[in-house]
Specification:
Elements: H1 5-22, E1 37-42, E2 45-47, E3 52-60, E4 67-70, E5 73-75, E6 78-81, E7 84-90, H2 91-94, E8 101-108, E9 111-112, E10 116-121, E11 126-131, E12 134-136, E13 141-149, E14 156-159, E15 163-164, E16 166-171, E17 174-180, E18 188-194, E19 204-209, E20 214-219, E21 222-224, E22 231-237, E23 244-247, E24 250-252, E25 254-256, E26 261-265, H3 268-271, E27 277-283, E28 289-290, E29 294-299, E30 304-309, E31 313-314, E32 320-327, E33 334-337, E34 340-342, E35 345-348, E36 351-356, E37 365-373, E38 376-377, E39 381-386, E40 393-398, E41 402-408, E42 413-418, E43 428-433, E44 438-444, E45 449-454, E46 460-465, E47 470-475, E48 480-486, E49 497-503, E50 510-516, E51 524-531, E52 534-535, E53 548-551, E54 557-561, E55 570-576, E56 579-586, E57 597-600, E58 603-606, E59 610-613, E60 618-622, E61 628-632, E62 637-642, E63 645-649, E64 656-661, E65 669-673, E66 677-681, E67 686-690
Parallel strand pairs: 2-10, 12-19, 21-29, 31-39
Antiparallel strand pairs: 1-3, 3-7, 4-5, 4-8, 6-7, 8-9, 8-10, 11-13, 13-17, 14-15, 14-18, 16-17, 18-19, 20-22, 22-26, 23-24, 23-27, 25-26, 27-28, 27-29, 30-32, 32-36, 33-34, 33-37, 35-36, 37-38, 37-39, 40-67, 41-42, 42-43, 43-44, 45-46, 46-47, 47-48, 49-50, 50-51, 51-52, 53-54, 54-55, 55-56, ...
Length: 696
């Protein structure tokens, strides 16, 4: 044992000397709780093109637990002594953060050191080519391969206006870049490669091309072959202004409204075959090209009834032959009278004939008939059967100065907006039980309430004010205001007033309003549409436009009339996701000031007596009487209040069915209520009438 001890001592001493020389240990005292101080980095400048880097870090207070923060990385150095650390890095590790100057500090458990800068010397980069030599405008991503020399992991690709793009370092001679949605088609972009020290290559020019559009869906997703509203919205991606919309390869007039929406109107001949169509969008050059076709469904249309001869009959009359006119009839068409199929004679595609027996018209009332053709059927058509001396009479008169009226088919009430100078119900909307002629409630709505519009589900009543720039919405379940829309709060509208209002069918929170300004002629300020309290941004033009409006054939359109200038245009206005646009304007249909329009059953009825086909806008005929008007096509009647009476006409034949006297003049509004009632607003009275002439 004694003989071996000197050998052990010699080995131990050698290990200590070796450790001191190799950095595995140190004879200097180590303070694990010291705050390190960083004096210098050797070398203090490195070449970015090098594959690896060896650094000597000098300072004080280093320990075996010291970590080095450099650029974007946290590194474990080799501990040499409390005054020295060493660090070896690859090129990728050095440029993890990618800045022009790399900041270094040393972290101990007790705290961190001061910061020193490791400078980077970048090579001179050069560009030899870019593939492809063009990029796409829009949401298309273009992958570029950039070739040259002197590239490092810190090199970045830039395009015009110092726009940095996603760059991947592949090698000193190759970078990959990803560019999305840049510039405008037809222009050029300058591409450079830059290093963090500010050096950059000369630019290479890239052409900017239009992308290829992509269609994802349509609204509506299909149309009937005889659809009157043929406007189709296209949704997708990468639509470019100037793009052409094609229907089965033929260009159609349309509008690209954004990079994801467009619309156009198909022609009647497009739909007539009843076959699916392929719709494409071709973006303009440069680039562009045609999208993949998207299939639009066109469904065969059902039979349509436009009229009957005779238009009505008298109860107790004899047998007769009924000729039915319309379209889409075929030899297989069958007429159903009051739900029962009748032997039918096919005359042409637009006319059929059936025999009606005396027993079918033995008693007064309204009969219904429709045309069935295979699995398709027309809408029922009303055929009035009148009592031999059918009439109507006044049942109640209320002392009210009513501006406008609306009927609640759910609660059986009539609502009236009452003028500001009415002695009893000024500035209120009153609810009236028309059967008993009693006022059941009222709501104070503001200064001089005017136009009314009730939703088709009778949930809400919209009220415009003649002397305040707002519309109030009444919740009819509680008969109280739940929302007020203040036009003056909208800086784009200013101080405007609702001249007329339409509640959009199927959308109780949506309404359209024709606006006017005070003390101006013309006063029209455009037509707007609101969803709850939010206005869609696009409205129709002011000055010459639809200052009187009414509902349309579908929830996607309304109609209007210019009463203020000699243009006197009747307008079809489309309802779009971003607002309203005039689709069709026709003159010569109603040529007078101060007229109004009401819509029902695909027809527009003017207070002048004009009857207009709603689509396309064209004159159907004339009722030989003017006055406040209310059409009820399903009841086979149109009511015209004039002089001291109400005349009743057939909506298709336009012949007089009968008349009843009410004894008042100056009637400015008439509406239907119940099964056999009318409400009429005179200057200072509300007149209620009932009778078989009105309905059974």
């Amino acid at each position: 044992m004694i003989a071996t001890q000197p050998r052990r001592l010699l080995i131990a001493c050698a290990c200590v000397l070796f450790a001191a020389a190799c950095g595995d240990g140190s004879t200097e005292p180590i303070d694990e709780n010291a705050i390190p101080v960083l004096h210098s980095i050797e070398p203090d400048t490195v070449d970015a093109a090098a594959a690896t880097f060896s650094l000597r870090i000098l300072g004080e207070g280093f320990s075996r637990q010291s970590r080095i923060q450099l650029g974007g990385g946290n590194h474990q150095p080799t501990f040499v002594r409390p005054t020295e650390l060493r660090l070896s890095l690859t090129q990728a590790e050095l440029f993890a953060g990618g800045p022009a100057r790399l900041y270094m500090n040393v972290e101990n458990p007790a705290g961190g050191s001061n910061t020193r800068v490791l400078h980077v010397r970048y090579p001179v980069a050069g560009l030899t080519g870019v593939l492809p030599a063009s990029i796409a405008w829009g949401d298309t991503t273009t992958e570029l391969t950039v070739t040259g020399g002197g590239f490092t992991p810190a090199s970045y690709v830039f395009i015009s206006h110092n726009v940095q793009v996603v760059t991947t370092f592949v090698s000193p001679a190759k970078l990959e870049a990803r560019i999305r949605s840049y510039g405008e088609a037809g222009g050029n972009a300058s591409l450079i490669v830059a290093n963090p020290d500010g050096s950059a290559t000369p630019p290479i020019q890239l052409a900017i091309l239009n992308p290829v559009a992509e269609i994802t869906r349509f609204s509506p997703d299909s149309l009937l072959s005889d659809a009157e509203d043929r406007h189709i919205w296209i949704y997708g991606r990468r639509f470019v202004p100037g793009g052409q919309i094609r229907w089965n390869g033929s260009v159609r007039q349309g509008t690209i409204t954004s990079d994801s929406t467009a619309w156009f109107e198909a022609s009647a001949s497009d739909l007539a075959p009843g076959l699916p169509a392929e719709i494409t969008i071709t973006n303009p050059a440069p680039g562009g090209a045609t999208s993949q076709p998207a299939t639009f469904t066109v469904r065969p249309a059902p039979p349509r009834i436009t009229g009957a001869d005779p238009a009505h009959a008298t109860a107790g009359g004899a047998d007769f032959t009924l000729t039915i006119t319309g379209r889409n009839f075929s030899p297989q068409s069958v007429v159903h009278w009051n739900g029962v199929a009748r032997p039918t004679t096919w005359l042409t595609q637009s006319s059929l004939r059936i025999d009606v027996a005396a027993a079918d018209i033995a008693t007064p009332g309204s009969r219904q008939f429709f045309v069935q053709d295979g699995d398709r059927a027309s809408i029922a058509h009303a055929f009035p059967v009148l009592a031999p001396a059918a009439t109507a009479a006044v049942t109640h008169v209320l002392p009210l100065q009513a501006h406008d009226l609306a009927h609640d088919h759910v609660r059986g009430l009539v609502y009236a907006s009452v003028a500001s100078d009415d002695p009893s119900y000024a500035n209120r909307v009153v609810a009236i039980d028309a059967a008993s002629g009693t006022i059941t409630g009222s709501v104070l709505v503001g200064s001089d309430p005017g136009p009314l519009a009730i939703t088709d589900d009778a949930q809400f009543l919209y009220v415009g004010l003649n002397e305040a720039p707002r519309v109030s919405r009444i919740d009819l379940d509680v008969f109280a205001i739940d929302v007020e829309i203040d036009f003056s709060a909208d800086q784009q509208l200013g101080t405007v007033y609702a001249e007329d209002i339409v509640a959009i069918p199927g959308a109780p929170l949506t309404f359209a309003a024709s606006l006017r300004v005070a003390n101006s002629s013309p006063s029209h300020a455009g037509v707007v549409i609101y969803d709850d309290v939010t206005r869609r941004p696009v409205r129709t033009d002011g000055h010459t436009g639809a200052n009187r409006i009414t509902r349309g054939i579908t929830p996607s359109e309304i109609y209007g009339f210019n009463t203020e200038t000699t243009e006197h245009g009747v307008r079809r206005i489309g309802i779009f996701p971003d607002g309203l646009r005039e689709l069709e304007v026709a003159g010569g249909l109603v040529e007078t000031f101060y007229a109004d329009l009401e819509f029902d059953g695909g027809l527009l009825f003017a207070t002048t007596g004009s009857v207009i086909d709603a689509a396309p806008l064209s004159k159907r005929g004339m009722i030989p009487q003017s006055g406040a008007i209310w059409p009820e096509v399903s009841n086979g009647r149109v009511f015209v209040a004039h002089d001291d009476q109400v005349s009743v006409y057939h909506p298709a034949a336009l012949v007089l069915i009968g008349a009843a006297t009410h004894g008042r003049t100056g009637i400015h509004r008439v509406i239907r209520w119940g099964t056999d009632g009318l409400a009429l607003a005179a200057a200072d009275e509300l007149v209620l009438m009932r009778g078989q002439l009105i309905g059974q």
